[in-house]
Amino acid sequence: MATETADILIIGGGLIGLSTAYELARRQAGRIVVLEKGSGVGQGSTGSSSACLRLRYSHLDTMRMALYGQNRYRDWADYTGLESARASMEQIGVLWMLGEDAAAVTAERDRIRSIGAPAQVLTRDELTGRFPSLSTCSTSIDFAEGTEHECGQTETFLFEDDGGYCTDPAGAAQDLLDACRRDGVDVRLTSRVSALRTQGGRVIGVDLASGESIDAPQIVNAAGPWCNELNRMAGIEHKWDLIPTRIQVMLRATINPLPGGLPMVADAAGGIYFRPESRGQQILVGSIRPEDEQETIANPDVYKASIDEESKAGLLHGLHHRIPSLEYRGQVTGIAGMYTMTEQDVHPILGPTHLDGFHVSNGYSGHGFKLGPAVGNLLAQILTDSVIEGDVDIAHDFLSIDRDSLAVREKSVLA
Ligand SMILES: Cc1cc2nc3c(=O)[nH]c(=O)nc-3n(C[C@H](O)[C@H](O)[C@H](O)COP(=O)(O)OP(=O)(O)OC[C@H]3O[C@@H](n4cnc5c(N)ncnc54)[C@H](O)[C@@H]3O)c2cc1C
After folding, report:
1. Which end of the chain is more exposed for a tag (fewer CB within 10 A), N or C?
2. Which domains does the chain carry?
3. What is the DSSP secondary structure assignment for residue 376, as one 8-state letter?
């Protein structure tokens, strides 16, 4: 079988791989090939993502990346150039209920404003006026039992006006597939990479399980929870623990619409985040507790994809605590997806490695959906050694494989 060639080869057709391919295609960066082992795109972490879009992070550069992503999702049809894009953004705002005092909330508001995005401090009355269904209790609940307690109160809350969520994360991957193919990227499904070929300290190509081979001087590992297998094939050494982790999410049907609707909420007292789903007919609820990001998956091809009863009960307690008027009726379902936790600092590793031509884009933890467009943009800058108008303006080595662990406020999905 003759060996084909590509200028840049991307392994993985999830949001990260496809965003990278699309950002490269926008720069007309030569012959780009994406290899995806599944029968469709977005069947890994991406398809089960909660796709929440918010800006608040410990690091301003992470926030800048999230802002680039938020702007792309808001103008998704324009960005992808698709007349009937499947995905879109619901800009419902993001409410942070972390039990912080006024000084802390004001400081966070100012950090968000400093990157050019709107944010405001809401008083308790303002919050209740705007979202009457939300309790403002700041007392932590008993996650397992949900036992009654006397409510404490905080007076100030942070609100990100422009945040929200993407309506269809799997659809976003499918949109990127369409946009990539339209722009000349060769995206191949059922194409599992089984070996990486190297020579003289540089990567030269891949072999596929089908027996085909493709040569390329630049290769990107965007294999999500399977990234360690690819890094082992490349023989690269690094200090990062990239751990495929099982993550559970609950869906609660809402019988009657909630007055004032819901924003996306991060709720420390309940240990949860939640947002509307299915045009408000459901509420999607996940955990923000670090202990719920610790179920390691030994083999990403085999894991339990349904929600555990215990987890469902805990998330329900949290939700009913925050929305006391929510009826105890309506279907409760859920899923378990997986993402790759970077144990040290819940931030990804991105860019070149010690093997010439081999790049990593791994360990996105719970942030890869919102960061995806910026990640693709940054990698396109690195791979083509060029900067064009509108590019994310942050130093390339911020997430490099050789960096020190970043100091994060919480080693959790909040990071
Ligand atoms: C339950 C859940 C909730 C989340 N919520 C959010 C959120 O609210 N906001 C947010 O920003 N992020 C969130 N995330 C995280 C985000 O979804 C992920 O970080 C992101 O989707 C990672 O994309 P990826 O392309 O790296 O990985 P994936 O989507 O897993 O894609 C990797 C692809 O590589 C392919 N592949 C693997 N090995 C090979 C090989 N050998 N050959 C060819 N192809 C291969 C796989 O088949 C897969 O399709 C959530 C994730 C989960 C699971």
Report:
1. N
2. 4-87+168-240+344-399 (3.50.50.60), 94-161+243-342 (3.30.9.10)
3. H
What's the confidence (pLDDT) of residue 141?
87
Q: Is 393 exposed, middle or buried (0-12, 13-18, 19+ CB in 10 A)?
A: exposed
Tell me which residue of 196, 199, 198, 216 sits closest to 207, measured CA to CA.
196
Does the beta carbon of 50 lie inside 6 Å of ligand 1? Answer: yes
pLDDT at position 329: 84
Q: Which of 50, 189, 220, 306 to mutate to test the pocket of ligand 1 (most atoms within 8 A of CB)?
A: 50
Question: How does DSSP assign 21-72, residue by residue?
Answer: HHHHHHTT-S-EEEE-SSSSSSTTGGGG---EE----SSHHHHHHHHHHHHH
Cα gap 204→218, rounded to integer Å:
8
% of the chain beyond a pLDDT of 90: 92
15 CA: nearest ligand 1 atom = 25
- 285-318 pLDDT per residue, tens: 999 999 999 999 999 999 999 999 999 999 999 9
Computed over its alpha carbons, how large is the radius of gyration of the chain? 21
Q: Quote the DSSP letter at residue 2.
A: P
The separation between CA 250 and the C-alpha centre of its own chain, rounded to angstroms, equals 17
Taking CA atoms only, the protein residue closest to ligand 1 atom 14 is 366
Residue 116 phi/psi, 5° resolution? Answer: 95, 25
Q: Compute the distance from residue 317 Cα to the ligand 1 centre, in Å.
A: 28
b (16+ CB within 10 A) / e for 80-118: bebeebbbbbbbbbbbbbbbbeeeebeebbebbeeeebe
Per-run averaged pLDDT (10 residues), the chain, 415 residues: 90 98 96 98 97 97 97 98 97 97 97 98 97 95 77 94 98 98 98 98 98 98 98 97 98 91 96 95 96 95 96 94 91 96 96 98 97 98 95 92 94 86
